[in-house]
Amino acid sequence: MDVADAGYVLERKVFDRTLTEMAGNEGADIIVKARATNVTKDNKGSVNGITFRYAGRDYTSKAKVVIAADGIESKVGRWAGIDTTHDLRDIDVCAQYLISKIDIEPEYCDFYVGREIAPRGYIWVFPKGPDIANVGVGIGGTVSGKGGKLAIDYLNEFVKRKFPEGKILGQVVGAVPVGDSLPQLVADGILIIGDAAHHSDPISGGGIANAMYSGMFAAETAVDCLNKGDVSAQALKVYEERWDKEVGKHFKRVCRIRDEALKFSDEMFDRCAAVLNRMPPEKVNMPTIFKTVLKHQPRLLLELRHLILAGWV
Ligand SMILES: Cc1cc2nc3c(=O)[nH]c(=O)nc-3n(C[C@H](O)[C@H](O)[C@H](O)COP(=O)(O)OP(=O)(O)OC[C@H]3O[C@@H](n4cnc5c(N)ncnc54)[C@H](O)[C@@H]3O)c2cc1C
């Protein structure tokens, strides 16, 4: 299905390096291979820097404001007194291979859903060239390990069946937040962004775009607050409000829709896909889905009512 502006496939290593280079060009000091070990606070408890370990030595870096971007296992927020822990139900566990010498359609991203192949998640094939793709699986945190099966086992089964001749060139494993956004995103002297703030999309688990939005909102708020000379939690809350207004407010609805869709059987998903297949891709929107379902599968509407009540339309 061709959907204009549906998204982009990027080379993550090149993308991250380019962003770092851009930051450096704008005057940022970059320290690689350094591990943050704690935050420092002033005598009123406001965050005013971090401590870090680099090349076997400990250092302290003072800052007027700290932005925590340390991913799903974020500790920086916790050191500042914000609870960043995840409920196991609110994460997906992922495994991904970069595989070459495979037969794919390089213009399309493929998604596979089904309780047998990826319980409470999905499999993706994201092309990186004519015969090379990122092939990955995400499964629910509470499902992982059940029956002795981990995400990598589901991935291996899929790859063996679908791409038996493929050559595995790389592997990534990790988890993504798929719950609601963290309610508290700021404390005195600190803001939290990206996966550390649970900002990945609750359905797709995709978090790159949202991490960039929250990074931008947080940076703009920090600059404003620095200019006004006030980096208290009260002043930094502008970031929290902007995130919620522009992106975060959709998370609760999306979580509800996701939870309803998760009750579907594989057979139900097949019927939904059959309906979507009847539509010209450029006409896939809510009113047309409604009309097509009504015409070809009126009973499906009855079954989809929970999604509609959850705020789908
Ligand atoms: C297998 C897999 C595939 C994915 N595919 C996609 C996809 O196709 N599209 C998409 O949009 N999203 C995808 N995601 C999700 C995406 O990777 C994240 O949402 C995104 O990277 C979040 O960006 P971030 O900067 O918040 O965190 P991260 O990218 O996790 O960056 C956090 C950084 O902080 C560093 N760090 C952590 N602790 C410390 C410390 N104490 N000191 C110093 N540094 C520290 C980490 O090493 C890391 O470099 C995928 C995730 C996984 C696991």
Describe this structure in words.
With 313 residues, the protein is α+β, with helices and mostly antiparallel strands. The chain contains 9 helices and 11 strands. 36% of the residues lie in helices and 23% in strands. It folds into 3 domains: 121 residues, FAD/NAD(P)-binding domain, CATH 3.50.50.60; 90 residues, D-Amino Acid Oxidase, subunit A, domain 2 (D-Amino Acid Oxidase, Chain A, domain 2, 2-Layer Sandwich), CATH 3.30.9.10; 47 residues, no CATH class. α4 runs antiparallel to α5.
Q: Which terms would index this structure?
A:
3 domains, D-Amino Acid Oxidase, Chain A, domain 2, FAD/NAD(P)-binding domain, 313 residues, 9 helices, alpha+beta, single chain, 36% helix, binds flavin-adenine dinucleotide, 5-stranded antiparallel β-sheet, 11 strands
Topology of this protein?
Layout lengths: L11 H14 L8 E8 L5 E8 L2 E6 L3 E3 L7 H4 L11 E10 L9 E3 L9 E8 L2 E9 L10 H12 L4 E11 L8 E2 L2 E3 L15 H21 L4 H29 L4 H12 L8 H11 L1 H6 L1 H5 L4
Parallel strand pairs: 4-11
Antiparallel strand pairs: 1-2, 2-3, 5-8, 5-9, 6-7, 7-8, 10-11
Helix pairs in contact: 4-5
This protein binds flavin-adenine dinucleotide.
Strand runs, count: 11
Name the beta content range.
15-25%
What's the architecture of the largest domain in CATH terms?
A: 3-Layer(bba) Sandwich
Q: How would you sum up the global shape?
A: globular
Task: Give me a quick take on this structure.
The protein is 36% helix and 23% strand. By secondary structure, it is an alpha+beta fold.
